[in-house]
Design a protein that fits this description.
The complex is a heterodimer of chains A (85) and B (381). Chain A is α+β, with helices and mostly antiparallel strands. Chain A contains two helices and four strands, in the order E-H-E-H-E-E. In chain A, 34% of the residues are buried. Chain B folds into two domains: 185 residues, FAD/NAD(P)-binding domain (3-Layer(bba) Sandwich), CATH 3.50.50; 138 residues, FAD/NAD(P)-binding domain (3-Layer(bba) Sandwich). Chain B is of the alpha/beta class. Chain B is 30% helix and 24% strand. The chains are: A alpha+beta (85), B alpha/beta (381).
Chain lengths: 85, 381
């Protein structure tokens, strides 16, 4: 799924700050957070790793989770994710 | 007198202590420097040997030696478990109540296996990350009649990142040598959307798997294992059944790191990737699995890091600064069968490109398995 903007939070949003971590670090931090949170939770993943741009959406698609939006600012990618299952 | 305390008697702690001793030989002999190594058991394991035990390529007794036989005679071995580090007071508190003071501390406490984090893992999975379980897997394979084998990595990071690849390829070769490959399936699972974490290596390994009829399931993040039904389900919603499960359990850093305020969420120590100093902590160096550096938790990593830490410890003891830098060097052989191997060699700036697997690389690995004790642990070269 591709999206260009990260909309405002519609519910409490958990921020996962994986800046400075290399692939697959950001993805593994996201997976750990998804394991912990309830269905319906929004998560915002911050990553400065280029390799994660491929792996994070791939994993979300495989896992049946929703990538609500993604933006890049100052070398940091912001992925907004909703846990739906 | 300056006190240098090393926490951990694995490859990193042992070789760094011996290297520091050699660099400060005069100071140690003259009583100006004392080096102490704290290790819970006082038994040193050559952990890459456990995989060799599974396939009868090393005997169990070849993988362990008394730590006291590996450390230079001038280094004190303290057999104890660490309770806590008080970085502000520069003290180490041991279980049982003993306190040790230090001027410089080296944390080489490795990683700890946590199979209990995956329900059903301990009951259902064979592993080869400790010696007793490696022997159990060896015995299970000796009587394996053929069937469905699943290789699973429960999470990242884990030590010896190539080991799941190795056991997969060795299982394939083993089953062929027993004449039961056609009665068997091998399924390889990995938590990320590729078979290995390094982009230049993953396609090479994937091709080897495809060529050998090994099924790939990625990403697969195991949630639960049902020992009775011999099945496992993943966070992604997939279910796999197995006759034999070979699993790599979740890893964490040592417990005392969290109690000491030194560990992150996984109990890994935030570490400067070049200087190998603990972030924000004076007089503390970190090496091997214990760091949070996003690089292979491998023996060679610890060995190369130990060179840097030893130089920096010696420099600081003599009034200088920690000027040596770790550039991310790693070297790992990858067994691609029972008698063939390749290798990966890389650093922070240069990714690996594994050469074509060959008997020659396997032979080099075999020689190193024997040379480890003198060459690496005793740091004789």
């Amino acid at each position: 799924m591709s999206a260009e903007t990260v909309p405002p939070a519609s519910s409490p949003r958990r921020v996962i700050d994986a800046r400075g971590s290399w692939c697959p670090g950001p993805l593994m931090e996201l997976i750990a957070a998804i394991r912990e949170e309830d269905v319906g939770t929004e998560l915002e993943l911050l990553s400065s790793d280029e390799g994660s741009r491929k792996d994070v959406p791939l994993w979300l698609e495989k896992a049946g989770q929703t990538l609500v939006g993604m933006t890049s600012e100052g070398g940091v990618d912001h992925y907004l994710i909703r846990k739906v299952r | 007198m300056k006190r240098v305390v090393v926490l951990g008697g694995g490859i990193g702690g042992t070789t760094v202590a011996n290297r520091i001793r050699r660099l400060l030989a005069n100071e140690v002999a003259g009583g100006q420097v004392q080096i102490q190594v704290v290790d819970r058991e006082g038994i040193h394991a050559y952990q890459p040997g456990f995989l060799m035990v599974v396939f009868d390529k090393m005997r169990p007794e070849e993988t362990k030696q008394a730590e006291s036989h590996l450390l230079h005679r001038s280094i004190e071995l303290v057999k104890a478990e660490v309770e806590k580090v008080d970085a502000a007071q520069k003290k180490v508190l041991l279980k049982g109540g003993r306190e040790m003071t230090y001027d410089l501390l080296v944390i080489a406490s490795g990683s700890v296996l946590h199979p209990e984090l995956v329900p059903g893992f301990s009951e259902a999975a064979h592993t080869f990350y400790d010696l007793s379980n490696a022997e159990k897997l060896r015995d299970a394979l000796r009587s394996f009649p053929g069937g469905r084998i699943v290789v699973n990595v429960a999470g990242l990071p884990y030590k010896c990142p190539v080991a799941p690849l190795e056991v997969t390829f060795m299982l394939d070769d083993f089953l062929r040598s027993r004449g039961i490959r056609d009665k068997s399936e091998i399924h390889y699972t990995y938590p990320i959307p590729k078979v290995f974490g390094i982009d230049t290596v993953a396609p090479v390994m994937q091709k080897l798997m495809v060529d050998r009829g090994i099924s790939i399931h990625v990403p697969f993040n195991v949630q639960t294992i049902d020992p009775a039904k011999k099945s496992m389900t993943s966070l992604e919603g997939d279910t796999l059944t197995f006759d034999l499960l070979v699993g790599i359990p979740p890893h964490r850093g040592a417990d005392f790191l969290q109690a000491s305020g030194l560990g992150d969420k996984g109990n890994w120590v935030p570490t400067d990737r070049y200087a190998l100093t603990a972030d924000g902590k004076e007089g503390i160096f970190v090496l091997g699995d214990a760091t949070n550096i996003p690089i292979s938790k491998a023996g060679s990593t610890a060995d190369y890091e130990a060179e840097v830490v030893a130089q920096n410890v010696a420099s600081v003891v003599r009034g200088g600064g920690p000027t040596a830098r770790y550039e991310g060097r790693v070297y790992c052989w990858i067994m691609t069968g029972l008698t063939q191997a390749t290798y990966i060699k890389f650093d922070y700036l240069h990714p690996p490109h594994p050469p074509t697997p060959s008997f020659a690389h396997y032979w080099n690995k075999t020689i190193y398995n024997r040379a480890y004790w003198d060459m690496t642990a005793r740091a004789m070269f």
